[in-house]
């Protein structure tokens, strides 16, 4: 018997139908609240994880949860991290999710008034933006860079939120640890202690973040940015080339396995131009656009951008 508000994982080694009985599904308009439990761990990214279920036999938008920290859901082949207020994800009836209990939070609440039918289960966009950036983004206290890694029709994603009010250390209120899968490509950022992030909210600091990936098989893989509020590049230490994500996708060849040292995600402070590239990368051997055109000269520090020469600082 399954209890409402609890999350469950099922795994089988054969195909077929699985019939389950749910204890007292809530059809009436009743608010629900699930108590969250603390679980001690020496690693902040591993502490206080709870598995919670949507208690309703209907759809429910995460933006209406009485809970503000990230959630993690299974997408059929891997895990996706979302944060209420930043994402428009809709929970399916009885869908399970992992939540990490912040110290100041004791429960997660569901308000009956926000239950949705199938026809009504469409997200109300509140923060969605496509790739690109504008001058006023420099005034924004939270700037997003959403990245994907694809191999054929398999895709994974990660997010960095630049926010000077947060720490580079893992924070349960805003960060989400990477739940890994071996079935699809994996992309994540890392901090200096090796913690892998699906959502990494942190200050700009030195403008560089380690970008790790997992390749389930040898072949061609593609990085792309689905949202960019600040200028971002990917530095490839294998080729000593830096790729401008605003120019489009970046495809590379990888062997099967995990690599946490090859790529670095680089941010520029300025909203226009390329001269905001961190000084430690001003002497990299090559900078390319995504069409493969060389954009800089390492000896002179000159970048070719939109047909004009720009000296990197």
Please provide a written account of the structure.
With 313 residues, the chain is mainly beta. Helix content is 0%, strand content 39%. The chain has no helices and 25 strands. The strands form 6 sheets. Strands 11, 12, 13, 14, 15, 16, 17, 18, 19, 20, 21 and 22 form a 12-stranded mixed sheet that branches. A hairpin with a 2-residue loop joins strand 11 and strand 12. The N and C termini lie far apart (64 Å). 32% of the residues are buried. The C terminus is likely disordered.
Structural descriptors:
313 residues, 12-stranded mixed β-sheet, 4-stranded antiparallel β-sheet, 25 strands, 0% helix, disordered C terminus
Oligomer: single chain
Globally, the shape reads: globular
Enumerate how many helices there are, as a single number: 0
Mean pLDDT: 83
Brief rundown of the structure:
The protein has 313 residues and is mostly beta strands. It has no helices and 25 strands. The protein has strands at residues 2-3, 22-23, 32-35, 49-53, 60-61, 71-74, 79-82, 90-91, 96-100, 107-110, 143-151, 154-162, 176-177, 186-190, 196-202, 208-215, 219-228, 232-236, 241-244, 250-254, 257-267, 286-288, 296-297, 302-305, 308-311.
């Amino acid at each position: 018997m399954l209890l409402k508000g609890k999350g469950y994982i099922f795994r089988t080694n054969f195909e077929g139908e699985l019939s389950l009985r749910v204890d007292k599904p809530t059809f009436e308009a009743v608010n629900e609240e699930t108590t969250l439990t603390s679980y001690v761990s020496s690693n902040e990214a591993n502490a206080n994880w709870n598995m919670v279920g949507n208690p309703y036999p209907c759809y429910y938008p995460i933006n209406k949860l009485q809970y503000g920290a990230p959630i993690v859901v299974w997408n059929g082949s891997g895990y996706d991290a979302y944060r209420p207020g930043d994402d428009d994800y809709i929970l399916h009836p009885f869908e399970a999710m992992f939540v990490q209990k912040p110290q100041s939070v004791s429960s997660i609440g569901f308000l009956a008034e926000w239950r949705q039918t199938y026809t009504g289960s469409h997200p109300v966009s509140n923060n969605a933006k496509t790739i690109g950036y504008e001058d006023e983004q420099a005034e924004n206290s939270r700037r997003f860079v959403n990245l994907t890694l694809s191999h054929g029709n398999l895709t994974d994603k990660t997010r960095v939120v630049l926010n000077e009010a947060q720490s580079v250390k893992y924070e349960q209120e805003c960060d989400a640890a990477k739940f890994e899968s071996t079935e699809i490509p994996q992309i994540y950022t890392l901090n200096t202690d090796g913690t892998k992030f699906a959502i990494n909210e942190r200050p700009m600091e030195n403008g560089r973040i380690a970008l790790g990936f997992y390749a389930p098989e040898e072949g061609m893989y593609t990085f792309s940015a689905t949202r960019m509020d600040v200028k971002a590049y990917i530095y490839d230490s294998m080729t000593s080339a830096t790729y401008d994500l605003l120019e489009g996708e970046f495809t590379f060849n990888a062997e099967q396995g995990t690599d946490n040292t090859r790529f670095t995600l680089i941010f520029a402070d300025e909203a226009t131009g390329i001269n905001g590239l961190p000084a430690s990368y001003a002497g990299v051997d090559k900078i390319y656009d995504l069409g493969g055109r060389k954009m800089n000269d390492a000896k002179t520090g000159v970048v070719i951008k939109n047909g004009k020469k720009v000296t990197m600082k």
